[in-house]
Amino acid sequence: MSLKMTEPYATTIAQVVPVILLVAVVEVQQIHRRVEDRSAALTAVFRSAVDRVQADPGSAVLREIYGDLDRVQKDFDDKLHRTRTVLYAIWTVTVAVLAGTEASVLLWLANDARAASPLLAWSSFIALTGGVFVLCNLVGVTRVSQARQERRWAKEFTDVLGRRPEGAPARES
């Protein structure tokens, strides 16, 4: 397949790239807001449990549970931070590639002596396709990743609260 840079093709690219970037910005902000809201909700649950544990600071059993809960929360925060870092790195690369494509196409359109430039046509096509792919998958990947992390966190949290620490009396049925 042979692509050539033509004025209609360049004009289309020049119009579509900003739309993709705008939609991507809105999506990334929504993802960020959802992650922050859910993280705040989970942290509130955790803090509530910790407050109940701290209400009786003299209990060795409760101090042990508190230490475990603190570790679970730290692990969850670390994993969430790593996921955000990877997603924002992908986002940054995508924006840079699309911005470079937009600038190249606009320069091509502004030039009076336009060559067919198959390289620019192909790179624009690849950048646009990649940008759409990242945009379409960013939301899904983020939601799946966040849900998995929350499930792991909730399981660890309930495991810590449900187990009987050493030295604790056995529960009567």
Rounded to an integer, what's the Rg over CA atoms?
Answer: 25 Å
Number of domains: 1
Order of helix and strand elements from N to C terminus: HHH
DSSP helix fraction: over 70%
Q: What does the average pLDDT come to?
A: 77
Strand content: under 5%
Low-confidence stretches: none
**Gap from first CA to last CA:** 74 Å
Report the strand count: 0
Q: How large is the count of helical segments?
A: 3
The outline comes out as rod-shaped
The description of the largest β-sheet is:
none
Which class best fits the helix and strand makeup? mainly alpha
Describe this structure in words.
The chain is an all-alpha fold. The chain has one domain (7-161). It has three helices and no strands. The chain has helices spanning 7-54, 60-110, 118-162.
